[in-house]
Each structure stands twice: as C-alpha cells, then as structure tokens.
Design a protein that fits this description.
single chain; Immunoglobulin-like; five-stranded mixed beta sheet
Amino acid sequence: MALIYFRQGSSVGTNFLFLEYEYQNDFTYGVKIFISGTNVSYDSGAILPGAYVGDSIGVSGLSPGTSYTYTLTVRRNSNNAYIGERTITATTQALSPPSTPTGLFTSNISQTSITLNWSASSNTTNYTVFLNGSEVGTTTSTSYTFSGLVAGTSYSLSVRANGNGGSSSTATITGTTSPLPEYTYTINYNANGGSGSMSSTTITTTNTSATLTVASNQFTRSGFSFTSWNTSSSGGGTAYSPGNGITLTTGNSSITLFAQWQALPPGFTEQSITSRVAINVNVNTLPDNTVTASNVNQYSLISAGGTFPTWLSITNSGGTGVLSGSTNVAGTYTFRVRATNTSSGQFVDSNIITITAYYPGKRASDSSSFAGIESARRYDGSGWVNLTIMRRWNGSSWVNITN
C-alpha cells in the first residue's frame, strides 16, 4: 500500500468539513479505497495497478466545534480482501460567541420605571437584563423597561447577549428615576388692624400633606389684647391658638390666619415688666411690679410659651395686681396676666411679660452694670486697711453696705 496522505482539508465550517487523500497503487492488482465515519460512506472504485489517485470528500450535517473520527481502508478490488487502513480526527469550526451590546442609553424615565436601550449584537439569540446585578428577565428586543422602581433613585442597568451556545460580556450603565415633586405649604399671618410684621411658617417636602405649627403672635395693637388666630378676619372661621397644628394638602397648600383682638377694659394698663431680677431679689421690690384694670376683682398668671415662672404669684390689692416672688435660678421667664371680673365671667389677657433673672453683678432695677464687690482702703492710724463695699436694693434706692 502506498498511501501518500489522508487528512482533513483546509476548508471547514461550523457544520461541514472536507477529507482529502492521495494514493499510489504499487500493487500488481487493482484495489479500492473506502472512507467511513459520521455522515460519510466513500468508495473510490477500482484503482488499477500503477495508478495514482486523489480526492476531496465533503462531509456535511455536522455539529459546530465537534471532533469526528474517520477511517480510510484499502481493499483488493477482486475479492475485497483487507490490505490496510489509516484513521484521522477532523473537527468542525466552533460558533462565534455573541458580541457585547454597545450604545447603551436610557429613555422613557418616570418616577417608577426606566427603559434601557442598546445596539443589536452579532450571533445573538436573545438578551438577559440585570437590575443592580440581579437577573430580572430576557428579551429578543434591543430594549427593556424596568418597572416598580423608587422615585429619585439610581440603579445599575445591565444587558448581556446570548447565542451560539455562549454569552457575551455584560454592558452596564446607571439610570436614575425621576424625583418626586416637592410641595411648599405655608401659613401666612395678617395683623388684621394691628401693626408689625411676622414671617410666614413654611415647610417644603415631597409629602402630599404637611402639618405646620401655628406661630405665636408678634403683632401689636394699641388698646387691644391678642386672643387667637382665625381663618376669617371677622373671627367667623376656624380659630387657632399658637402651638396648634394645621394640616395642609397639595390641593390647599396655603392658609392665611388673621390676628383676633379684644379691646382692653377701660383703665386697664398692660405693664411690660422687663426689669432685671438679681438672684434672691424679690420681684415685689421692683418699681414696676403691678398691673391695673377697672371692674376687675381677680388676677392670675397664665402661660405664654417659654419658661413659666412657677415661683411667681399675683394678688389683687384694691383692684391692682401685685406680682411677688423670688428665684435663685437664672434665666428668662415669660407669662401673661389675666384680669377677670368673676361676676360677669369676662376677662382679658395682657401682652407677653418677660422677666430675666441674672446672676449677681447686674443691677436689679435696670440693665446697668456695677462691680458688685468693690475695693477701697482707709487709714487706721498705722496703715491702710482694705474695705469691702456692697450694695442692696431696699425697695426705693440702692444702699451701700461696708464691712
């Protein structure tokens, strides 16, 4: 047998290949060549003595990237007697993997959804999409809509191409949902005959409703006392007191409150007690510790927000309210005086009164500073002796105390 070669041909595909051979018959009798294997059954026919033959046999219907075994057998032409054989392995071409998706961009962005788009990949059957690294679905389209998202949130959006028995690398971009709208809720304040200014109470939020706290009155009106706020200037609407809550919604996001005023009874004088109170100095020693009103037989103290002076009391002295009390706790205290006619049940409240307690070293009657403890010297006949000078309020004037 003079087999020159038996090999796989250079032409190969994903589902076909070629087998090639050359043979020189050196026998004195004729022979035949047979090739067997997957999808092939080859018979060369008689090859005469001394003949030189060669052939290329195409094999189709194969699988991509698969190896196959083929055998070339030489037999005597006259009686099919076995002379010899050669076996080879031939392999088809593997399929190309899909290309990675490119050109990613987002569209149709809302508060709860984002559409991811990309350019088509080659060798692709479908695409797998991922949200924040987790697989959420497949599609044969070149876009996918992620839904059920949270407003104003950024997400990692990814896509991978599948096909030819494999998958591409994953391509990723970031997409952000639309934010929730912001709403501003406002309480406006109207002096309603008074004077002064007040800032509005405002809250900005993404919530479709908000509860705002009604502010304390900062307006003034001569001869009148503030009583409350009302949604109507005439007082016929809904009444609110400072500190109350008002819930507003997107359909009713602002409201105006009008100051409500009550005329003071004849002869009523509102005292703005601002004298500075030194620790352990009684309020009833101050020159402005009284309030007066006509047709009144009872005075009381009521809260005005802030720190209420629980140590302070008021008594009715012939129609005049007299404040008394003392404290050894420094701080600022606020309150109102309520003047009442118990027979008729009518009453009126004063404006906010403020008392500030200072540590020693401030005068009790005004805001002027003094040394508190002063040094002086006197000659005792043999040398200078240091003196200590202190002062106290006796109810009408300051009195020096020396040792």
